[in-house]
């Protein structure tokens, strides 16, 4: 018999969802968002793009396959997307205290407690998700029964990219071609996908002036929060665009490349966070199933004359990537490295490496 404490998720409109704690017990606040993927909680929890957010999983049963062991290969986590959990808290309907998987090292609850991350279950996540879809992403806080209360927090008012980016230059691989990777909160599988294609990756902090380096191509990573916080990164990208070296951006990278090209971004009502978002390549009937995690989007109507949309979301018509009409610059709002998720679009890494 599990002994659990009562815990409450309180939204900023006053709605309260009462559940039970299965993670670390402390009050926490952030932006409440939902993800509709059926699997992949180890990858989601370690995705830096979730920094500052309370993550709600719409798939009801979570924890049944535990979490994998911590291993590093070539300086990268083997089974995770970063070195630590980035979500503020995890909210689920039914938590499985029993787990079974060939690669499981411990339970999800033990992992959350180790990393001091809050987890609550026995929440009506269907009703919660309906409310978030209706009102949009909301501020929320979780308080433990008998514990202290805290104020609501809007993480998008902070520079979350600066929080999750690396602090120094890191090199990976020993390929002939050199790719500068601007780390806005990069997932490790992006680096794995580049290394698999035999390039040297030079990972630099979000505000590093990479134009002083010798490189063959520029990669701009995913990351959390509002792209408007990354003005210095945009300026560095704009300077790089005075040349003709290939540029590839993913997620936040799509937004920052667009801003460097003169476009504007805006906040989506509740974002795209799932494994099965359909996108169409513009000018073709080619459609792809993609993995996504973002709360902001590019305004297609603000793209300059030299730019055009590359992909469009088939659910709501929003931008899913851009390309320059004459120079080798392109991006994707979705995640072609797709861990965990579909691998339909990993060919975009091949397209980038061919341009180097």
UniProtKB/TrEMBL annotation:
Residues 5-143 form the Carbamoyl-phosphate synthase small subunit N-terminal domain. Pathway: Pyrimidine metabolism; UMP biosynthesis via de novo pathway; (S)-dihydroorotate from bicarbonate: step 1/3; Amino-acid biosynthesis; L-arginine biosynthesis; carbamoyl phosphate from bicarbonate: step 1/1. GO terms for biological process: 'de novo' pyrimidine nucleobase biosynthetic process; 'de novo' UMP biosynthetic process; glutamine metabolic process; L-arginine biosynthetic process. Gene3D superfamilies: 3.40.50.880, Carbamoyl-phosphate synthase small subunit, N-terminal domain. It comes from the Bacteria. It catalyses: hydrogencarbonate + L-glutamine + 2 ATP + H2O = carbamoyl phosphate + L-glutamate + 2 ADP + phosphate + 2 H(+); L-glutamine + H2O = L-glutamate + NH4(+). Residues 1-177 are annotated as: CPSase. The keyword Nucleotide-binding applies. Its EC number is 6.3.5.5. Keywords: Amino-acid biosynthesis, Arginine biosynthesis, ATP-binding, Glutamine amidotransferase, Ligase, Nucleotide-binding, Pyrimidine biosynthesis. The active site is at residues 251, 335, 337. GO terms for molecular function: ATP binding; carbamoyl-phosphate synthase (glutamine-hydrolyzing) activity; glutaminase activity. Composed of two chains; the small (or glutamine) chain promotes the hydrolysis of glutamine to ammonia, which is used by the large (or ammonia) chain to synthesize carbamoyl phosphate. Tetramer of heterodimers (alpha,beta)4. NCBIfam families: CPSaseIIsmall, PRK12838.1. Belongs to the CarA family. This is Carbamoyl phosphate synthase small chain. It comes from Barnesiella viscericola DSM 18177.
């Amino acid at each position: 018999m599990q002994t659990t404490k009562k815990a409450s998720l309180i939204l900023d409109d006053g709605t309260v969802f009462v559940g039970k704690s299965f993670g670390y017990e402390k009050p926490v606040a952030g932006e409440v968002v939902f993800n509709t993927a059926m699997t992949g909680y180890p990858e989601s929890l370690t995705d830096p793009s979730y920094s500052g957010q309370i993550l709600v999983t719409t798939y009801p049963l979570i924890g049944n396959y535990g979490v994998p062991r911590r291993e590093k290969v070539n300086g990268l986590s083997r089974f995770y997307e970063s070195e630590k959990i980035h979500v503020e808290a995890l909210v689920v309907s039914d938590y499985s205290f029993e787990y079974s998987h060939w690669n499981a090292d411990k339970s999800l609850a033990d992992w959350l407690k180790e990393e001091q991350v809050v987890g609550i279950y026995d929440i009506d996540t269907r009703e919660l998700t309906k409310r978030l879809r209706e009102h949009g992403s909301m501020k929320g806080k979780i308080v433990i029964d008998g514990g202290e209360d805290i104020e609501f927090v809007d993480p998008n008012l902070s520079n979350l990219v600066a929080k999750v980016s690396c602090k120094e230059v890191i090199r990976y691989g020993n390929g002939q071609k050199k790719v500068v990777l601007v780390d806005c909160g990069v997932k490790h599988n992006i680096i794995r996908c580049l290394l698999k294609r035999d390039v040297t990756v030079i990972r630099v902090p979000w505000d590093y002036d990479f134009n002083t380096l010798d490189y063959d191509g520029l990669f701009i990573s995913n990351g959390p929060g509002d792209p408007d916080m990354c003005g210095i990164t945009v300026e560095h990208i704009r300077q790089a665009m005075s040349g003709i070296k290939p540029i590839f951006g993913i997620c936040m990278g799509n937004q920052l490349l667009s801003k460097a090209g003169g476009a504007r971004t805006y906040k989506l009502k509740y974002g795209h966070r799932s494994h099965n978002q359909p996108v169409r390549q513009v000018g073709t009937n080619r459609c792809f199933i993609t993995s996504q995690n973002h709360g902001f989007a590019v305004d297609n109507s603000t793209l300059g004359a030299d730019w055009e949309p590359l992909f469009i979301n088939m659910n709501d018509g929003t931008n899913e990537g851009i390309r320059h009409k004459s120079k080798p610059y392109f991006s994707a709002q979705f995640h072609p490295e797709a861990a965990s998720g579909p691998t339909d679009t990993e060919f975009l890494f091949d397209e980038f490496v061919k341009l180097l």
